[in-house]
Design a protein that fits this description.
Blueprint lengths: L2 H16 L9 H13 L4 E4 L2 E4 L10 E7 L18 E2 L2 E3 L3 H18 L7 E7 L10 H4 L8 E4 L8 E4 L1 E10 L3 E2 L8 H14 L5 E2 L3 E2 L1 E9 L5 E2 L2 E10 L5 H11 L3 E4 L7 E2 L5 H8 L5 E3 L11 E4 L14 E3 H16 L5
Parallel strand pairs: 3-6, 3-7, 7-19, 8-18
Antiparallel strand pairs: 1-2, 2-6, 4-5, 5-20, 8-17, 9-15, 9-16, 10-14, 11-12, 13-15
Helix pairs in contact: 1-3, 1-8, 3-8
Length: 354
């Protein structure tokens, strides 16, 4: 088969997926399509909930295992779409539709690379995984498939990066801060105002700078994003609740940042989860070195992906542009899919002529 046919097959599959609603936690129909397609191509499949994966016919113990991963779920379409988000229309070489860019392009391109290389003598054992619930970091997504996968040494995640390697990715931790006061009548200035009890903590959150700055991701940052207090204008609030969004770089664990914050704030502080860690891959890793040799430029990504749940090294590399994600009239260019397939094959085989 020629590269054009693999591209055509990738686009045809992506059009089917776009036409199938697959909002996070509602991916069954899309998972059915991926399972059916993998079987049609001759692969034995494994499935856990709406996560579908395929393994090579034979795992060679002397070779590292490379996971090729992308997600099948989408966010809900925003109201400003000017076309039907579930109509996979192609105009002037551009395919429109919800999930086309994030991350349908990477999903179908990685599948074609897996298809082309699964029975070839490559430096890696290849595993292909289409995962669910990525957009919500859900418990029935990648986390559910993880313990059922074989040993993985490194992963390529097909998020849209313009086929430039994202060698580090920020983690996420959401904190709930609660300050307690005492209610009273506002006219008499009675009680202890919980808003004012929270005030010093908010000032500290705004001004604190974490010392360790990543060359790819910059500093770890935190922002107070939601505040709730009070019941009516004439009652001094006795409770104030603030939500803090924390984006960690690879030089801190979420637990370490949490401990730093708890030592400085007076309010009660609780983390909703520690599981979404920052991730990275060494610049000396052979995949990164090959990409640099191919003229690619490593960078750090501020957006979260299933990498946060991976206990091994990984990088993001996929067709499309992150700026198109979660936006109206989302699209991917057919030429971007063709280039992605070719790039993945060159990278995995270290073949400069593909």
């Amino acid at each position: 088969m020629q590269t054009e046919q693999y591209t055509s097959d990738a686009v045809a599959l992506l059009r089917r997926l776009i036409a199938t609603k697959s909002v996070s936690r509602e991916e069954k129909d899309a998972a059915d399509i991926m399972e059916s397609e993998l079987r049609r191509l001759g692969f034995s499949t494994r499935r856990e909930a709406n996560n579908v994966w395929a393994l090579p016919d034979r795992m060679l113990p002397d070779r590292p295992t490379l996971l090729l991963n992308a997600h099948i779920d989408t966010v809900r379409p925003v109201a400003s779409w000017t076309r039907d988000p579930f109509s996979p229309d192609i105009e002037d070489g551009t395919l429109y539709g919800l999930g086309a860019n994030d991350c349908g392009g990477g999903l179908v391109s990685l599948l074609q690379a897996f298809r082309m290389l699964h029975d070839k003598d490559t430096p890696y054992n290849l595993v292909y995984l289409a995962s669910a619930e990525e957009e919500v970091s859900g418990k029935d997504g990648f986390s559910r498939a993880l313990p059922l996968l074989p040993h993985i040494d490194v992963a390529i995640v097909g998020e849209p990066t313009g086929m430039q390697p994202a060698v580090a990715e920020k983690g996420l931790m959401v904190l709930d801060l609660t300050a307690h006061g005492k209610s009273g009548h506002a006219a008499r200035g009675e009680g202890v105002n919980a808003l004012y009890e929270m005030l010093d903590d908010l000032v500290w959150i705004r001004g604190y700078r974490f010392e360790r700055v990543s060359c790819h991701l910059g500093p770890t940052v935190m922002n107070a994003t939601v505040i709730n207090a009070g019941t009516q204008h004439n009652v001094v609030p006795d409770v104030c609740h603030v939500v803090v969004d924390v984006r960690t770089n690879e030089l801190y664990t979420n637990e370490e940042v949490y401990d730093i914050i708890c030592r400085h704030v007076r309010s009660e502080c609780k983390a909703r989860s520690f599981r979404l860690h920052s991730s990275s891959i060494s610049l000396d890793h052979q995949l990164v070195q090959r990409l640099v040799d191919m003229g690619k430029k490593p960078f750090g990504s501020p957006t979260l992906s299933d990498q946060a749940l991976m206990p091994w090294e990984s990088l993001k590399l996929g067709p499309g542009d992150s700026a198109r994600s979660h936006s109206a009239d989302e699209y991917i260019r057919v030429s971007e899919i063709a280039d992605a397939i070719s790039t993945y094959v060159r990278l995995i085989t270290n073949n400069r002529s593909c």
